[in-house]
């Protein structure tokens, strides 16, 4: 909706004005009237959800009718009000002119005709209103004769971040606040004279959403995040996460996995160990992304190239160790596989193909296919897919891996504030392993894309799930790059499993638990299905039966 000023002027007492008020509050308010000439320019955006009403001294037979105009008896002269629950108690007075309201192209002539009846009673000025028929639209006010107020480069970066959230964020109530009003208040009140001040303002803005997964990434963090989905990275080969607190401790960062053959793996660091410090800096209040930067080479001021050292303080059970690791290029192959012989008679003994999937990087689906084909050539007749401590990764890779195991059915429903938005399913064209028995191992470290895969295989009755309830991250984030190289990780949707289960903060519930002593490493897995005397023993029937 646009309002433009004209050339003639009248006294303030007879001039037309317009206001915006909150339909949830008392409409009988007396806001301060601001003359146009007291402002350089004013640009205001609101989202409309109600009607327009024009208030005039003159009344007609049916006061209160609002199509396309509404004459209402009242104490105010020549005013129209826009009902909205986004802006409230604001009224602006034009010092000149008559009003013309245009609702749409088709009704423009009706608007002109309707105004012929009263335009002679209003001084000469042209104000044009374009009212969109959509529920949400944009409202802007501009005075043509006055120069616009310039925005600084820092303001523009802030606005870029604001618009990204406005466009992409899943919760269109923005945690129950007026997102437009926040923008206006921030531009008016938050200091943004330096880049660091702008970053602080963006972080403060995101904090109002109360969503830990929607976060700001400085340029070096954004680069580090992207590198984690590539096939190789310079670092020490660790996948880290926040501790679950199951051992009574919440300090430090927990090791989810150590890349096979990488510096951390060779030093004896394994899943479940806790990193207490990196280069003598405590990790107690250190974020995952800060820690990742310190461990990899893509960190602030280009510290930590290949061949440089990083000092770690690591707790393994009751033992605390101080280690010096040398960064090197680590291949991020997300798949390990092996063949497990199970009790049987000679050559007819059943063979199980075990596949450990540690992350969903860009190599994941291809590596899973390769592992299946290799195991098939060795005559396996069943598969175990281990997703324990897999914290997720690229959403599309999760979908592609589900298609490997499913010959038909829904994989996941993507939902927003209005309900189901997208449906991902499969026609079986990529299903290369849709018939053999399949067991999937999960635990509390199974999160995000791993949960999508596990939920799809369970709800389509393709696999038996064993272990413990998964992490419960039922939201999907997309990463957006800003113009200065920084970025935003934004929650853009939530998802439901094929059975329409919302797993957020609940997780995917397995069909059966695993023995408490069941190992996480692939070397020990075979022993638990071969040796009936083992404390972790799990026979074939228990592994593949519901």
TrEMBL record:
<dbReference type="GO" id="GO:0009543">
    <property type="term" value="C:chloroplast thylakoid lumen"/>
</dbReference>
<dbReference type="GO" id="GO:0006508">
    <property type="term" value="P:proteolysis"/>
</dbReference>
<keyword id="KW-0378">Hydrolase</keyword>
<dbReference type="InterPro" id="IPR001478">
    <property type="entry name" value="PDZ"/>
</dbReference>
<comment type="similarity">
    <text>Belongs to the peptidase S41A family.</text>
</comment>
<keyword id="KW-0720">Serine protease</keyword>
<dbReference type="InterPro" id="IPR004447">
    <property type="entry name" value="Peptidase_S41A"/>
</dbReference>
<dbReference type="GO" id="GO:0004252">
    <property type="term" value="F:serine-type endopeptidase activity"/>
</dbReference>
<keyword id="KW-0645">Protease</keyword>
<keyword id="KW-0793">Thylakoid</keyword>
<comment type="function">
    <text>Protease involved in the C-terminal processing of the chloroplastic D1 protein of photosystem II. This proteolytic processing is necessary to allow the light-driven assembly of the tetranuclear manganese cluster, which is responsible for photosynthetic water oxidation.</text>
</comment>
<protein>
    <recommendedName>
        <fullName>C-terminal processing peptidase</fullName>
        <ecNumber>3.4.21.102</ecNumber>
    </recommendedName>
</protein>
<dbReference type="InterPro" id="IPR036034">
    <property type="entry name" value="PDZ_sf"/>
</dbReference>
<dbReference type="Pfam" id="PF00595">
    <property type="entry name" value="PDZ"/>
</dbReference>
<dbReference type="InterPro" id="IPR029045">
    <property type="entry name" value="ClpP/crotonase-like_dom_sf"/>
</dbReference>
<dbReference type="InterPro" id="IPR005151">
    <property type="entry name" value="Tail-specific_protease"/>
</dbReference>
<feature type="domain" description="PDZ">
    <location>
        <begin position="222"/>
        <end position="297"/>
    </location>
</feature>
<dbReference type="Pfam" id="PF03572">
    <property type="entry name" value="Peptidase_S41"/>
</dbReference>
């Amino acid at each position: 909706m646009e309002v433009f000023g004209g050339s003639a002027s009248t006294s303030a007492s007879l001039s037309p004005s317009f206001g915006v008020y909150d339909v949830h509050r008392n409409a009988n308010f007396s806001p301060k009237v601001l003359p146009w000439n007291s402002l350089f320019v004013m640009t205001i955006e609101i989202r409309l959800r109600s009607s327009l009403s024009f208030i005039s001294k003159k009344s007609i037979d049916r006061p209160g009718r609002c199509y396309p105009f509404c004459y209402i008896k009242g104490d105010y002269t020549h005013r129209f009000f826009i009902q909205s629950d986004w802006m409230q108690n604001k009224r602006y007075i034009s010092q000149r002119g008559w009003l013309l309201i245009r609702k749409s192209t088709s009704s423009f002539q009706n608007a002109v005709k309707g105004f012929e009846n009263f335009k002679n009673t209003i001084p000469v000025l042209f104000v044009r209103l374009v009212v969109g028929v959509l529920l949400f639209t944009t409202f802007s006010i501009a005075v043509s004769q006055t120069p616009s107020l310039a925005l600084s480069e820092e303001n523009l970066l802030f606005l870029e971040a604001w618009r990204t959230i406005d466009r992409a964020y899943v919760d269109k109530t923005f945690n129950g606040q007026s997102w437009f009003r926040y923008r206006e208040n921030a531009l008016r009140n938050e200091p943004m004279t330096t880049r660091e001040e702008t970053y602080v303002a963006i972080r403060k803005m995101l904090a109002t959403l109360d969503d830990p997964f929607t976060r700001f990434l400085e340029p070096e963090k954004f680069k580090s995040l992207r590198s984690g989905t590539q096939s190789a990275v310079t670092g020490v080969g660790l996948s880290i996460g926040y501790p679950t607190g199951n051992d009574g401790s919440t300090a430090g960062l927990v090791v989810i996995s150590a890349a096979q053959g990488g510096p951390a793996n060779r030093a004896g660091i394994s899943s479940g160990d806790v990193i207490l410090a990196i280069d003598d800096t405590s990790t107690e209040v250190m974020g995952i992304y800060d820690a990742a930067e310190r461990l990899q080479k893509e960190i602030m001021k280009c510290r930590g190239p290949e061949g440089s050292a990083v000092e770690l303080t690591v707790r393994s059970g009751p033992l605390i160790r101080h280690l010096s690791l040398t960064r090197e290029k680590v291949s991020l192959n997300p798949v390990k596989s092996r063949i497990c012989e199970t009790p049987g008679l000679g050559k007819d003994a059943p063979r199980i193909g075990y596949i450990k999937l540690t992350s969903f990087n860009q190599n994941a689906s291809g590596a899973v296919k390769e592992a299946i084909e290799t195991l098939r050539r060795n005559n396996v007749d069943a598969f175990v897919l281990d997703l324990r401590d897999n914290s997720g990764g690229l959403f599309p890779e999760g979908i592609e891996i589900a298609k490997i195991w499913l010959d038909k059915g829904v994989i996941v429903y993507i939902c927003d504030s209005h309900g189901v938005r997208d449906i991902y399913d499969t026609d079986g064209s990529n299903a290369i392993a849709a018939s053999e028995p399949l067991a999937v191992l999960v635990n509390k470290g199974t999160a995000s894309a791993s949960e999508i895969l596990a939920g799809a295989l369970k709800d389509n009755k393709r696999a038996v799930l064993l272990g413990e309830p998964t992490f419960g991250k039922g939201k999907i984030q997309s990463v957006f790059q800003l113009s200065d190289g920084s970025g935003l990780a934004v929650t853009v949707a939530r998802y439901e499993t094929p059975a329409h289960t919302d797993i957020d903060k609940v997780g995917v519930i397995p069909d059966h638990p695993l023995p408490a002593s069941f190992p996480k490493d692939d070397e020990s897995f075979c022993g638990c299905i071969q040796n009936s005397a083992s404390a972790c023993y799990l026979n074939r029937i228990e592994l593949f039966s519901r």
